[in-house]
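Hi U.,

Before I forget, here's the chain from the pilot set. I'm dumping it here mostly so it's searchable later in email.
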Amino acid sequence: MSFKKQPKGYSSKAVHAGYSPEDSQSLSVIPPIITSSTFKQTDPGSGKGYIYTRYDNPTRDCLNKVLAALDNAKYGVTFASGLGSITAIFTLLKAGDHVICGDDVYGGTSRFIREIVSNFGMQYDFVDTTDLEAIKKAIKPNTKLCWIETPTNPLMKAMDIEAIGKIVHLQSGILFVVDNSFLTSYFQRPLEYGADIVMYSLTKYVNGHSDLLMGATITNSEDLYKKLKFIQKSTGIIPSAFDCYQVIRGLKTLSIRMDMHMTNGITLAKYLEKHPFVMKVLHPALPSHPQHELILRQCYGYSGVFSIYLRGTLENAKIFLKALKIFMVAESLGGYESLIQLPKKRGFTSRKFDFSSNKKFKSGFLYWKI
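Structure:
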């Protein structure tokens, strides 16, 4: 078996969608960076489409359009960070609403739900979203949001997006959101499998250069789009025009970069899988992964993120990290540089492990980001 065949045209859309030279009076080939905070009104209270940059901005609109096009969607809204996107989505809810979230998610998402969302009277349950029956049992009359990542951070669990979507949509009013930051729309397009909103940390692979923070929400629902735009306007969680230009530039090479991330990641993962000091490799593109067939069926490829269990103790893992020559120990992922991380301190996103306190492990858990 192999990954789904990528339809033709993705790379061309990444280059051309969202802007044409005729959109600018200067006929510039690339989108202009419009840094103006305000715009002249031709009549009091109205202008030529733009009034104030917190509401809309020409450069940001170019980015919104190309991001939507790459997900074969109608609408895109960009925010100042990935967590800004998360904040906007949860602002769609109200006190008393119930949230189902995967039990292995980005630590910022988990922290936001536990420490912020709970303060506003919302309820939540963390569920193993690889278990469809567990999702069914977790749904309550007041459930309004189901949030998943696939693959997950950092245990690399893959979710059946279509199956989960069918379950949550049996009950009216449940919003189904997929964090697709690890694969991007080049390798996975969750809206095609029933997601209502696709969320991205554009900071990662989409921008690809580790030099900005940004997030996005993509949807086909006009109602959700209007609500998210209103939340953006009312909360001010906007990215700068220059950062939007940087992401537009990064998108031009996204397909080329993702193909190389995949090739290099699989090559290293196969090597590590045979290494005597490695207990286990968690890479969804390898046949050894428990959801390997699902990934092949659902995706057009895979990125460069994977995890391993290294034999020895936590101290052995630290020694290993310090001995690396090319990989840098650093947060985040998706840039052209190769990074690695030991999930510890500040709490580990999965409740199955706690590297911050227990030093008697038989292995060290390492998070590779190529």
